[in-house]
Amino acid sequence: MKHFFTLLLLMAVVSSASAQSEKPGKISGTLTDSLTTEPVAYANAVLKDGDKLVAGTAADGSGAFLLSNLPLGNYTLELTFIGYKARKIPVSLTTAKPELALGTLHLSTDSKMLAAVEVTAMKALVEDKGDKLVYNAENDASNAGGTAADVLRKVPTLTVDLDGNVQMRGNGNIKVLVNGKPSGMMARNLADALRQMPADVIKSVEVITSPGARYDAEGSAGVINIITKKGLKGFNGSVNATAGNLNRALGTKLSYRKDKLGISLAANGYQYRNKWRNEISRIALEDGQITSILTQQGAGNNLSTGGYGELSIDYDPDSTSRINLSGNVWGGDYPNDVTTHIQLRDASGAPLTTYRTERRYKNPYGNGQLDLGYTKTFKPDQEFALLTQYSRMPDNYFYDLDTYTEGNELTMRQHSTNYSRNQEYTLQTDYTHPFKLYGARDTTSLKIEVGAKAIRRDIGSEFRVKQAEGSTDPLAPDPDQSDDFDYFQRVYSGYTSLHLSTKNKWNITAGLRLEHTDIEGEFLSTATPLKNDYTNLIPSLTIAKGIGSQTIKMSYTQRIQRPMIWYLNPWVDASDTMNLRTGNPYLKPELSHGLELAHSINTEKGISLNSALFWRYTDNAIEYISFLEDDGVSLTLPKNIASRMTYGLNMNVSGQLTKIWQLNGGAEARMVNMESKALGLERNALNWYFYVNSTVKLPKDFSVQVNGNYNNGWIGLQQRNSAWYWHGISAKKEFMDKKASLTLGINNPFTSRFKQVATRADNNFTADIVDYRYNRSARLTFEWRFGQMIADNGKRTKKISNDNKAGR
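^ TonB-dependent receptor, sequence as received from the core. Prediction below:
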């Protein structure tokens, strides 16, 4: 196989070199709006010899175009796009100068044409930016009124199951950033956070499968960066309201920018309904013989309520400096009340115990974060930044549990509280410097990035349990289920990265990142200490070569995954009396190695095809493991218990097939091998999925979109899940001169609920878990945009990006 790919690469290089020797001419440039300096995406660049067409192409999403394999001679370059005046430029390709880099070319708007012509072209939903794939969520009509989980379901390389759990190429250890910085909400519990973040605030999603040295080493699978919509220059804003059977929301965004000062405010309130039912059947084994049988049925119908707000202030003392201050808060309550019927039988089927539990479960959570930063730009590609950040995240869990006999007699009451906190302080500095290479042409550049960061995390959990027998006895503390846990983590890191770009489309990025972690912890009631430290040297290398409209890229990186706070917290969640869950404060970090060979091609018709072969190996992998006690109760906790190897192929195609029809789709197949010598377990499976997203823009400002995905399931060390699918349809109408819109979205219209089966097995038990998710939904969203809508192309605000959220 490796010889086959080598042969293909050699053939492409030889063919390209042969063509270039006969037609060595090249013309490149970038098209921008003369007023806003925004890129003019997908404009036409045509080369003519008199009236004869020599070559033509369309600019990409960033306005860049390339005409290659051109014969030498004198020509006219014509640049055209709907809404702009045509521009003609005389060009000459000679033996002495066969390649012309025209740089930035401005196109002037044509007001007459704009008034007479309706522009129906749409920006590509998916773009390949070299080091990342970008999904332009704001151009996807079906996202209106949905959640971030709905958005991520349509992002290449990502899969989102029915519970909102996200995986990148089969790995759930992902770092999720918001606007390049960490979000306490995302770090707390990603699946819950995605359900509570409205899709309407998301502009785009960046997927980085091979992060370089400038990114923190945290995140085994890679990095997801959610970009929210920014305010434009002047005063502007929007309000939106969503009504539906599962989702409801009300929000606003306001922005003001003039001269040196910029202020933006965003606020949103939301509700999300979670309705489900499950069935558990578990058989306990001893020496291959059945000892007991558990059957359990539960159902829940809960409504979570929450909101967020963010205020950001930017001030530019001069044309090269920016000071930014921002604060945001998230908060809400995520209840999970459930009624459960439980029966435990012996090997012959005779009942041992039968009872019912009523659980009232609350998860009030919150996060407050402050960012203060200073950025100085000396010249293009030379920048210094000093950034600080403070965040505090209370994350509390409370439940009351009542147990009843078959005769409805109350036999036990329990009250559990877990007050969890996480305070984080960060100081970071970065510097970027370009170098001039003597003897090299202007199209060859070298850039170095260096930086340092210090993070201090103070984490704690105070958990208490009170319980009583019968309905009248007072609740009494249970010291065996109560303790105070303190955990302190310090991460010190430094990095350096070199980026080389040449005239013949070689791009090489090499970097090293050194991270040292100190950990101290203690169980206060027993004075039991916990101490650990480790140092990681993380290399990364990416080599890319452009050949005409194609790019071939190879990358290698190491990543680490520090255990999150919910992995570490030793509080025992006993709200499901037969299935207990807890954390493990003695976890060690994962270390993974990843290789990727990627290929992308952009056709003259605007079709983009991206594919990648990938391999990743993780040692000391963290897996949730279930242990069955003699009384038939299961305890599940995370352990460093396995090695995990994943390899496969990912493909994505996107483009605008016609002026009104846009199509985006993809598929992935991966082989997953997991092994634990300690438990004597091994799992192997071929996992695959595909998705499709199609949008049609109709007359009179109507648009219709359909989307769907299918996944054949996933595996864990003890578990295998069955397939799941998701589909939706939406229709959007814009009015009031496109300042307002009304969007109707329907998810899973052809099925009211979805059934998913998970099988779990170990040496002493087998279990079948059947989940029913009620996810048919309809929502109607109204949005109104007001104010001055002029693009702000000023300096970029830089903030801290803690993508190594171990303490969260």
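The CA atoms of residues 166 and 243 lie 26 Å apart.
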